[in-house]
Amino acid sequence: MMNRRNLVLIIIAFLVVFVICGCGAGKKHADQTKQNEQAGKSEPVVDAGPAKGTPENPIVMGFNPAESADVVLVNADALMAELEKKTGFKYKSYVAQSYNALVTSLKFESCDFAWLPAFAFVEAEQHADAKILLKAVRNGAPYYYSAIVVRSDSPYKKIEDLKGKSMAWVSETSASGYLFPMAAMMKMGLNPETFFAHQVMAGGHDTVLMAVEKGTVDAGATFAGDNQGKQGSWTQYLKGKDIGKIRPIFFTDPIPADTMSTSEKFNQKYPDVVQQVTKAVKELSLSEEGKSLLKKLYNIDAMVDAKSEDYEPVREAARLLGIDIEGKRKKAEEPKTTNQK
């Protein structure tokens, strides 16, 4: 049997080992706590996962469907490849089905940056806490226009000639395809809801042109690069035998250009990423390759710094039409004959 003296020695040895291990663990925890405090971290320390811009966690850029999603995606992927060369980050392109879907993606962090048209940005600012970074420049100006277009062989010369005719809009969240031309007509004393016999929501600028060109509707609203009719969606999208089949008959006041935005949350979490990506996009116009990519994407010449105040004309147009920030007509003013796609 084990005598009392040996038992005491075993107990003492066990206690010594326990104290040594406990002190070691305590020191390790204290050292980690000190490191966390120095780094401005609070306990517990949680693994943040792969760094942003890595193959495991790429930067997601969301693009609006100004034309066919397949076409936009090809051009967006080419742009992402160029940005990867410039920044070293990995990217993933995403083309939303609608402007609203792109705003929603930014809100719920499905995308990190979003190429938003004017009104969609204003909406995103309110509902997705969007932060504007850059705006597009075309023909030397950071704004564009809306045009009402008709078939070139039609008899229509001015907007008043369209009374009782059919009209195609892009969507209720499109500045050039709905908001600004609607507001312009209201200022002229023409209520689109009673002025037109029939209205449709085509869903895109290219589909508006298609509807007009095929005679499905008499007129349509779309974007224009100037107010002289030299550049617009009809010069950008119509190809081959269709060139020259569409002409503008009316232009609105200038519209603040489309944007590249992020969310305040993403900007706070990854300020260095936002700074580097913004700088790289701004510098695209400094090379012939970059210029070509921007041109193919959305017919952009360059991207320049922007601020929220630049988009006050969009908010004013929305107020004039009684449109809330989500782009929905007030129920009392909803068109009865509008067929939305």
What does this 3D model show about the protein?
The chain is α/β, with parallel strands linked by helices. It has 2 domains: 59-138 and 258-316, Periplasmic binding protein-like II (D-Maltodextrin-Binding Protein, domain 2, 3-Layer(aba) Sandwich); 143-256, Periplasmic binding protein-like II (D-Maltodextrin-Binding Protein, domain 2, 3-Layer(aba) Sandwich). The protein is 42% helix and 19% strand. It has 12 helices and 13 strands. The protein has helices at 4-38, 69-87, 99-107, 118-127, 175-187, 192-195, 205-213, 233-237, 264-269, 271-282, 288-298, 312-321, and strands at 59-63, 91-95, 113-116, 130-137, 143-151, 166-169, 198-201, 219-224, 246-251, 255-256, 259-263, 302-305, 338-340. The strands form 2 sheets. Strands 5, 6, 7, 8, 9, 10 and 13 form a 7-stranded mixed sheet that branches. It has a 6-stranded mixed sheet with strand order 2-1-3-11-4-12, with helices on both faces. Helix 2 (69-87) links the parallel strand 1 (59-63) and strand 2. Helix 2 packs antiparallel against helix 11, helix 3 runs parallel beside helix 4 and helix 5 packs across helix 12. The protein is globular.
Overview features:
6-stranded mixed beta sheet, 12 helices, D-Maltodextrin-Binding Protein, domain 2, 7-stranded mixed beta sheet, 341 residues, alpha/beta, single chain, 2 domains, disordered C terminus
